[in-house]
Structure formats: structure tokens, C-alpha cells
Write a structure and sequence with these properties.
The structure is a homodimer of 141-residue chains.
Chain A (H helix, E strand, L loop, with lengths): L12 H23 L4 H9 L4 E2 H7 L4 H13 L3 E5 L7 E5 L1 H13 L2 H7 L3 H14 L3
Antiparallel strand pairs in A: 1-3, 2-3
Helix pairs in contact in A: 2-4, 3-4
The structure holds a DNA duplex (30 and 30 nucleotides).
Chain lengths: 141, 141
DNA sequence: CACGAGTCCTTGAGTCAATCAAGCAATCTC
DNA sequence: GAGATTGCTTGATTGACTCAAGGACTCGTG
């Protein structure tokens, strides 16, 4: 679910458009993940370990408890999509790496997750730059 | 969690900006809901019943199983934020309506969910129109 | 009118995501 | 080295979600 809604009445046009865009993006993300047998959480983690990361880094980036990451990584490891390697510099810590299978699966997932690519393709180069600038400005960036 | 990620490597600027915007939006939504003791799911449902809706309509709009809606509505009803009224025209069906408490709480939630409002406020009127048009075009709308 | 099919919702069972509290092992600080 | 801190895991719980099954109601057809 997790479908934000916007006050049908009060919302201005931009706010409505933002909502629709966010909703479409979220929906596309989830659909793409499911198509490859991934939950959104699994896809998030799998995406992050494109480069080697510790459990703690994942927890921070994904804004959740470390024990949550443990649970997800264990499952991904059981499917041989990631490996947990010891960190030679700190034996408390573990480095998570994607396996080749994980790379393949995530690649396929990204292929399927066409939304941002398609959205960009619907715009001219100038419009893309404009949109980038406007989104960043809207976020105060 | 539910934090979409984007290929750190391959993503273009627009795609990166889209991701950041969506992520910020999602995060703001969840934070605002939590601040009022609502889960995202509860906030979604509460938002939709601004106007009277059947369980089935809610399930369809929120793209989930009817039994999921039942569960959420039961809890919202227990907190007296919504009421389930019989539909006189079809006694299988139930109409969900917000109570005054529900109106108040959702109003407060929207007040807290400042992200879209703030984002709009960071732009000039002309930029807002531009952004609306670009987002719609990007979605093929 | 009655029967069967379909609709609307609820219940129950089960899974995954998420959080918290507790604990263990390794590291750091003094 | 003792004690605090860090990094992760385990266990218990809660909530969101899905699916299968069932009850109540409606509708269409004969």
C-alpha cells in the first residue's frame, strides 16, 4: 500500500502532480521488485550492496534497525544473492557483497524498473535539465 | 525502509533527482504519520475517507486485498476515527466515513506533512507551472 | 419465485518487515 | 587490564499484507 494521498480538495496542481509522480514511482518500484521475486526491502538492500557495505552502513542508509538488516541479509544470503565476509580490520564487523547471481538479478530488476528511465526519455535534454533544477530547488537543494 | 535506490553508477542527473525527491517525499509522509500516532497504512486510509467510500473502493484505490482494509478500518474504528455505516442500497456493502475526531486528526496530519507545500513554496508561480507540466509530461500524462 | 452465480466483506492462517530489549564478541579508552 | 562502547545477532512482538474459505446479500435466469 504505502500510497500517500493528497487532500483531494485543497491540493494545488503542483502538489497533485508531485503526488501522482511519487505514487507512480513507488508503484513501479514495487512492481519491478515483485516481478523478480524480491520484496521492496530485499531490492533496496540488494541495490545498496552494489559496492561493499557493512551491516551498520546499510542500516543507516536505509534508516532502520540493524536487526532488520540482519534478517534481510540472511535471507538474501540463503538465496546466494549476497555474501557476508569478515572485515579483516575489525572482526566485529561484516562486509556484505553481491554475488554474481546477485549482480545478475539486480541488473534484471533495474532493467524492469523502467520508470525513471522512461520518464527521462519523455523529455527533451533541455527539459531534463529544467526538471532536475526544479526538483532540487523544490527540495531547497 | 521502502527506500528505492538508484544505480549509483548509471543514473543520470534527472534520475538521481527524481529518486531524491521521491525518497524525501516518502520519508516526510511517514514521519508526519508517525508524529500523529498513525502508520502509513492508517494515514492512507484515513486520507481516502475524506469522502464516503466502501471497503472495496478503498481496496482498489490502495491496491491491496479487501481483508487488509478490513483490518485497518477495524483499528481506525476502535480509535473512533472512522465509522462503518451500512449501505442502505446494498446491505452487503459498508460505507466508511470519518468521524469528527478523524477529521481533526487527519487535518493535523496534513498540517504536519509540509513537504509538498514547502516544495511548492520554494518555487515561483511560473516554476510551479513548469514543474507540473514537466512531471505530467514525464509520466506521459 | 427459486436457485445458482456472483459480489462484498470478514475471518483465519501464514509470511515478511520492523522495532525493541538483551546479549555476545571485538575494540577502544584510560 | 577493567570498563565502556561498537557491531552485529537473537528472540519476542506488532503490524501489514496475501491467500483461502466462508457468510450474507444481490442479481439474473428460468
Amino acid at each position: 500500500m504505502a500510497v500517500p494521498s493528497v487532500p483531494a480538495s485543497a491540493a494545488t496542481d503542483v502538489e497533485q502532480a508531485m503526488f501522482e509522480f511519487v505514487d507512480a514511482y513507488n508503484q513501479a518500484w514495487e512492481a519491478a521488485a515483485n516481478e523478480h521475486g524480491l520484496s521492496t526491502a530485499h531490492a533496496c538492500v540488494l541495490g545498496r550492496v552494489e559496492t561493499r557495505r557493512s551491516m551498520g552502513e546499510l542500516a543507516e542508509e536505509l534508516r532502520c534497525d540493524a536487526s532488520n538488516i540482519t534478517q534481510i541479509v540472511v535471507r538474501l544470503e540463503a538465496r546466494e544473492l549476497v555474501r557476508r565476509e569478515p572485515n579483516p580490520d575489525d572482526r566485529r564487523s561484516r562486509q556484505i557483497v553481491r554475488t554474481p547471481d546477485g549482480d545478475d538479478l539486480y541488473g534484471a530488476f533495474e532493467e524492469t524498473f523502467a520508470f525513471p528511465r522512461a520518464a527521462a526519455a519523455n523529455l527533451t535534454a533541455a527539459e531534463r535539465e529544467q526538471l532536475t533544477a526544479l526538483l532540487r530547488k523544490a527540495m531547497r537543494g
